[in-house]
Amino acid sequence: MRHVATLAGVGIKTVSRVMNEEAGVSEATRTKVLEASRQLNYQLDVTAGSLRRAGRRTLSVGLLLPSVSNPFSGEINRALEDALSARGIAVFAASLDDDPQREQSIIAAFLGRRVDGLVLTPIAKNQSYTIPEHSRDLPMVFIDREPVGVDADAVVTDNAIGAAKAAAHLLAHGHTKIAYLGDRTDIQTARERKRGFLEEIGRAGIPSSSVPIRENLHDEETARQAAIELLTSENPPTAIFSSQNLVTFGTMRALKELGKNREVALVGFDDFTLADMMDPGVTVIAQHPDRIGVRTAERLLARIDGDQEPPRTYVVPSELIQRGSGEIRPPA
């Protein structure tokens, strides 16, 4: 700032007023300062300024997601950015890769940057290690998965209810041989979706022991292999419920490879771009990551602004979207 002031021939306070877009500076002086800052490639230190003016806030939050490359995570990231940018708050996003040790190390990195709040998708069995930060009033909102060992706001989908909707839909279309393809069993949402699915199957009088179940399918390829194994078995399912978008992608590939995409019904959990353009269109239980992101931003900002209400869990309802794949009936 001193270098800019010297080059522009003004005082440091004048440079500060111009860079912070404050009044009381003539247009000619403003132009000289901006030209000097451009020549020197000077940028205002937002963090330092915010620490002085805003109660030591850095105008930043840390966002921990399963993987920023996953479409569901990406939509949440974008919704949060859109909502928080209106307050001048930047979002630092990182991928968890569902690794408990990575969870703690990334949170430590966020804290080292003095973020004003955290939005976390946890994988560790217990998040009580965050209590020291929580007790000093650092706002935290857990997203997609509820925390264990710490009281904090959470914004989640109705995972069990959504999976039950998928099972009920396939049952209503005549299927009794429905396979379940699931994510890792140490992930809270995967366990909830399996529970909702099997409970609905049980209500229809189908014993859970007769349901083909393949779990710990955490990427497209493992899901593809599991689906091929089921579909080429002696007693193949007539319908599949895939409980996560990457699992759905692998299942779709398997059905296409075997030429069964119009013979075997499919309902996936998570909507995705171009699902309506597949052959047939993919029926899904749609979460609403945009709504989850907006609701999360609302709760985080409320906590930053001093909201002291007891923590609670906010549930964003899922939605069954019929596009064709889930409406295929079993062979006569």
UniProtKB/TrEMBL annotation:
What keywords are assigned to this protein?
Answer: DNA-binding, Transcription, Transcription regulation
Claim: Transcription is one of the keywords in the record: yes
- Protein name, UniProt field: LacI family transcriptional regulator
Q: Which domain of life is it from?
A: Bacteria
InterPro entries linked: HTH_LacI (IPR000843), Lambda_DNA-bd_dom_sf (IPR010982), Peripla_BP/Lac1_sug-bd_dom (IPR001761), Peripla_BP_I (IPR028082)
Question: Could you tell me which residue ranges the HTH lacI-type domain spans?
Answer: 1-53
Keyword Transcription regulation recorded: yes
Q: Spell out the Pfam families in the cross-references.
A: LacI, Peripla_BP_1
